[in-house]
Design brief:
globular, mainly alpha
C-alpha cells in the first residue's frame, strides 16, 4: 500500500512538473485566440456602452455622491453604467496581464508603452521622466471619469496581441533609439503601465 501511494505521488509530481513546464508555451499559443475572440470584443463592447452616452458625461458629478443623489435619473443611470463598464474593463486588463505573466510576452518595455493605449507615447510624452516637474500630471482624470476620457479624448485604447505590442515598441525604438532600455527594464511592467491609470489593483 505504501509503495502504491509513493508511486501515485511520484506520478502526480511528474504531472505537475509537466504542466508547469508547458504553461508558458500553452499561454503563448492560446493568448492571441483569447485576446482576439474574447477579451478584445468584450473591451470594445464596454467602451462602446460608455461612448453611446458620453454626451451626458459633463453633467455627472463623478466625485460628489451627494450631488449624484440629487441628479436626474439619466445622469444617475450613466454613473451606474460607467461603473459597470469600468469593472468589466479592469477585469479584461487583469486577464491581459495574466496572459503576459504566463507567456512572458510581450516584453515589459513593450507592455509599458503600448499595453493599454496604442498612442501612449504621444498622449503622455514625458511619462517616463524621473523629474516630477517634467513628467507632469496624468493627462486623464481619476476614477470613473477616466472611462469617459478613454472614449472622448485623442486616446486610442486597444488590446494588442503580444506580437502587435512588441512590433509597436520595435517601431518606437527604431524611430528613437534613446528609448531603448526603458524604465521597466528589470522591473515590473505592470506597475509601470498601470501607474496613474486606476488599474493598480491588479499588480502582482
Amino acid at each position: 500500500m505504501t509503495r502504491r501511494l509513493a508511486a501515485q505521488q511520484s506520478i502526480l509530481m511528474e504531472a505537475r512538473a509537466e504542466v508547469a513546464e508547458r504553461t508558458p508555451w500553452l499561454a503563448a499559443r492560446l493568448s492571441e485566440e483569447i485576446i482576439a475572440e474574447y477579451l478584445r470584443p468584450a473591451m470594445t463592447k464596454a467602451l462602446e456602452q460608455v461612448q453611446a452616452k458620453a454626451v451626458l458625461a459633463p453633467r455627472v458629478p463623478w466625485d460628489d455622491p451627494r450631488a449624484l443623489v440629487l441628479a436626474d435619473r439619466e445622469v444617475r443611470e450613466l454613473h451606474e453604467l460607467v461603473g459597470k463598464a469600468q469593472d468589466e474593463y479592469f477585469a479584461i486588463r487583469d486577464a491581459q496581464h495574466r496572459l503576459m505573466t504566463l507567456s512572458g510576452q510581450p516584453s515589459k518595455d513593450a507592455y509599458h508603452h503600448f499595453g493599454e493605449l496604442r498612442n501612449m507615447p504621444s498622449i503622455w510624452p514625458q511619462r517616463d521622466s524621473g523629474v516630477p516637474s517634467i513628467r507632469g500630471a496624468t493627462p486623464w482624470p481619476d476614477g470613473l471619469a477616466r472611462m469617459v476620457w478613454l472614449v472622448t479624448s485623442a486616446a486610442e485604447p486597444w488590446l494588442p496581441t503580444a506580437a502587435e505590442c512588441n512590433d509597436a515598441y520595435r517601431q518606437l525604438i527604431e524611430a528613437n533609439p534613446l528609448r531603448r532600455g526603458g524604465v521597466t527594464s528589470g522591473g515590473s511592467g505592470f506597475v509601470a503601465v498601470t501607474s496613474g491609470t486606476g488599474l493598480d489593483r491588479f499588480r502582482s
